[in-house]
Design brief:
Blueprint: H1 2-12, H2 25-46, H3 54-78
Length: about 90
């Protein structure tokens, strides 16, 4: 009886292959927000014939920081030799 329960539990959670890597969802989300922020910053910076205000530069800086954080998470998740936390 216990052996059957153990077999069913193993069937529900198959082990992932060792060499498999995947992108971090948070990294993808941050990169998407950064892309939207850069588009919005572009609108602020080119409005009024290039007279960039403080809001445009702050938006640009925040978008760059979000993009860098997202890329760090993505590269960390795709790095070879990363130990598998699921097993």
């Amino acid at each position: 009886m216990w052996a059957e329960a153990r077999d069913v539990a193993q069937d529900r959670h198959p082990a992932s292959p060792r060499g498999r890597r995947r992108a971090d969802p948070l990294g993808l989300w941050l990169c998407g927000l950064a892309a939207l922020g850069l588009a919005r910053a572009w609108l602020y910076l080119v409005r009024d014939a290039g007279a960039a205000g403080a809001v445009g530069w702050i938006w640009f800086g925040g978008s760059v920081l979000l993009g860098v954080a997202g890329l760090v998470l993505l590269l960390r998740g795709l790095r070879p030799g990363r130990p598998d936390r699921g097993t």
